[in-house]
Amino acid sequence: MTDPNPWQTFFDRHAPRYMDEPFVTGTAAEVDFLIEQLALTPEHRILDMGCGTGRHALELARRGCQVTGVDLSEGMLDQARQIAAAEGLGGLTFQQGDATQYTTDAPFDRAYCVCEGSLGLIGAGSDPQAHARAVLGNLYHALKPGGRMLITVLNAMRHLRLYHQADVDAGRFDPATLTERSQLTTGEGEQQVTVEVVERGFVIPELRLLLEITGFAVDHIGGGTAGNWGIRPAALDEYELLALVTRPEA
To answer: Among 11, 37, 103, 126, which one has the highest count of C-beta atoms within 10 angstroms of its own C-beta?
Structure first.
């Protein structure tokens, strides 16, 4: 039987190891960047979509911010809740949810969706383009008019330079959808699991078009690999792109 969402299975098992990943070491500097670029204040209600173990949400809470973290994986959220409880952090809410189905009755002042926090992680059998439209549409409606958002996504320009026709023929890369297919293994002993996953990248013109069609005003798109966020042009081979957008006033 095909796993209905291999990413949920993977991250539930990978959660205890997630904070050992090398790309998580820049959290404090990334939060500095979020505060600066989104002009965050303690009065703002902030949405962290695809929050994982809550590394950004937790750091923002340490600085007095109010953050709601949403993630597909209860295993990842359990890690975040344990840290919040151990530190006695307030102003935090963690919710299990699928970004393609997310709704809220209380829109947020600011939002961010980073480190493949849902946009690039495609569920089994899902259409990558429909997935992106659903996530971006839900983020748009989760923001108040005038609200700002920061996202990072995989850089498909890197994929196009990395893969060859043999990879296309073998099903490892699909140029029609800019998706990579691979197997990931995590967990120990009887908890070990191997899943087949699909990750989707973006090129800048398509990302801009998707954002604008959704209704966002695009303030910037450029390079933004984890640990090296900034306002700069994208390098062809860097891992991620970064976009800053605004939901226009009515």
So the answer is: 11
Q: For residues 164-179, give the mean pLDDT.
A: 97
pLDDT computed for residue 4 by the predictor? 65
R_g of the chain computed on alpha carbons: 17
Complete domains list, the chain, with CATH = 6-154+203-246 (3.40.50.150)
| Cβ pair 65, 40 in contact under 8 A | yes
Give DSSP secondary structure letters for 75-111: HHHHHHHHHHHHHT--SEEEEE--TTT---SS-EEEE
CA-nearest of 121, 201, 115 to 161 is 201
190, pLDDT greater than 90: no
**Beta bridge mates, 220:** 244
